[in-house]
Structures are given as C-alpha cells and as structure tokens.
Amino acid sequence: MKLFAKISKKRSPLALSTSTLSILDHSQNLMLTAIPLGTARRVLRNAWAAFGLEMIDTCGLIWELDLSIMGLLYPVMGFCRKVLLVPSLRIPVPFEDKLIVEFIHIHGDGGSFGLDWKSIERTFRDECSICSFTIARATTSYTSRYLFDNYTLIVSEYLDSKRLHQTILESVDEFRRVGKLPEEEFGRVLPVYVFDLEVNTILLLDRYHQSVAFKDMVIAVRTKSTQTVSDYSCNGHHVFTQTRELERPLVGSILQSMWGVSPTHLVWSPRHNSSLVDYTWSVGQTPFGPFSEISSLSFVQKDAARRNVLLTSLNYSITSGIDVLESIAAHGGDRKLLKQNRHYEFIQRWNLFRYKLDKSISAMSHFDYEMALYYLRSSDHDLYAIHTLVYHASQELEASLVCFRDPPLPWTSLLLSGGAFFALLYVYAKREKLFRSKRKQF
Prior knowledge:
Keywords: Membrane, Transmembrane, Transmembrane helix. It is built from twelve helices and 13 strands.
C-alpha cells in the first residue's frame, strides 16, 4: 500500500490554500478520508508527539509558505511516508503459532546485575570453555588517529559479529548442553546470546553496535565500562552510549530477527539495490539508533511487525498460485488437463482464491490486520484444493504412443521440378541455334 498526501485543488498539487487535505490509496485510487487543514495540523502535531517530540510554534506557519518552500517540504513528507508508513521488510517472516525467545546470558563472577530479567524465561549462568573460545576467536583490532598535541595512533578492539555468529553455530549443541536448554519441537525458537565480559575496556560488535540481529539468532555484548562517546552528535553535543544498558538494543534486535522489522535508519533503495543509512526519522519513540533512549514501540514498529507476517504469507500464496498455473500450462492447459466437473471446481476455487487475496490486501490498506490474516489463512484452503485437483488430474493422464506414418510421395512437386529441369537443359543444349541471330556478323 502506498499512501501519499495530495492537496485537493486542481490548479496546483502543492498549493495549500484549500480547505481539505485528501489521503488517497494510490494502489486502488480510492479516497479514504478528507481532513480539514485545522485537523491536519493536529494530526501532524500528534504524529510528532508519537515520537516523543514537540512541534515548535513556527510549524503552524508551514501552511502559509510559498510554493518553492513547499516543493522542498514535499520530498521530506514522501520520505517520511516511506520510512514510517511502509518500512522495508528486512527478512521473510513465516506465520507461526508459537514463538519462543531463549535468553542465554554468559557472564563471569560479577553476576547479571544491570539487566532486566523479568521477561527472560531461562538464563545461562554457568561458565564454559566454549564461551571464552568464542570471544577470543571473534576479537579483532582496529586503529584510529586522534589529534591531541599531535596525531596519536590508538589501537582498539572489537568483536566481529559474523565470525562470532559462525563460531556459535558450530558450537550450538555445546551451548544448549551447558545451559540445559530444553528442546522445542514446535514453534520458532530465537536464541539471544548475551556476552557479559569481565573487562574494563569498550568492546562492541563491529565497532559500533551493542547488539546485532541475525536471521537465526541475536548476539549482544557488554563490558564493565559504563558509557562511551559515539561518532554522532545531536544539536552540537556528542551522543553518549550507555554500554551497560542492553534492554533497548535487545528489543530492537529481537524485532529484526523475529518479525523482520527494519530499523528506522535503514531505507531500501531500488536504485542502489541496497540499504541506505539515514537517521532523519530515527529519533523519539524507537528502539533503534543512538538518538533515542526510549525502548517502547511506536505505531511504526507495531504495524510493521504485524504487516511483515502478512506480506510473507501473501508472497507465498502468490508464488504458489503461479507454480500451479505453470504446472497446468505444462500439461496442455486447464481444459485439456481437467475434465468438466473438475474444471468447474477449479474455476470456483480459483475465483475464491483471488477474491480472498483482494479482500486481504484491502484489509491491510485499512490497517485491519486481523481481518487480513483471516482472509490469507482462508485462501490457503482454496490453494490447497487447487493443488489437489491438479495433482489428481495429472496422475490420471495416460501416455499414448502414436505410430509414425511416412507421408505420401509429392508427385506433383516432383513432376513440376523435373519438367523445369529438363526445360532448362534443353535450352542450354540448343543455345547455339536459339541465339544465333543475336551474334555479331563480321
């Protein structure tokens, strides 16, 4: 669904002297609501408040600005819509009836002080040899130059998240054995590995992150150091990172791994075919980025978590529908493959399948995710019935051998070709007599 703001005045799409602001659904070209400009101001103010910010008094003057300034504001609003209303899907998120997050805490003698374990079901409190080996293998160093009295070269250490991830994968059975984690037969399990190190220096993942999300796990690390200065500044002041507080980074990483929620500072760019980093809207009420200390979720993360599950299911349904159509085409088409009764049932099921997909997309455009999930789950029954019909029909096909017969001899073509050949041969043989009058006489 692509929503955009359009001013309902014909002479200029950017003129703001009209009395209503229309929100249109671009995919279906239907008007959803008409908001007076006074209400639009309040909507913007509430949107800022949702991110823990306040609109300054001069923001009310935006509506009276000239078209040149509004031309600069319009792309910003479009970028805001792309980041907040339709954020990118980070990873496919299949629908699961049961989701399990396993917190595995690896620490020394200092204990687990400073972490909120109220929502943690199980912890990992015993020392093990594989833990020290994992950290030692993933530790890497980098050099930086700082200008004090002169340029000073400083060597710092960090943890390579990819190497750490690979080491944990190779030793996952050992972690589960030492941590005495039960085996889960049903549901999706997301392990969260928290490394609590007894060192006094700053040790981050990939130099900048306290927690890193992977498709199959989350890795976090902290040391005895309480805070560090990040490479970012806000309002002319350096931004400090509280390295002992892992609750907020863990919330963001679990959102990425479990529900595929993309961080608010990462935007997918089709032009570059990669993700771009932009911290414009990564402020306020968001668990991502260094410019906020709030770990609670706003409507951006809540809607994206529910929508990503629906988008993954919708993509699977459409892909499976295309596969069954290609299978029918490979067998000669629906009328040749399916008999009359089965063909009627196939048409009915296919129309129901398309209807439910349309209703699901419509429900998603109205943010009714429960109804969208209902139609998607219901469409799975029709898709399964279609696959069953095609499978049984293909099993009943019998191979037949048609004997090859030589085609009759084309006597007409042979006689015409032979006559033309003999005519040319006769002309060639009589060329002296036929072209004698054409020769020059001396």
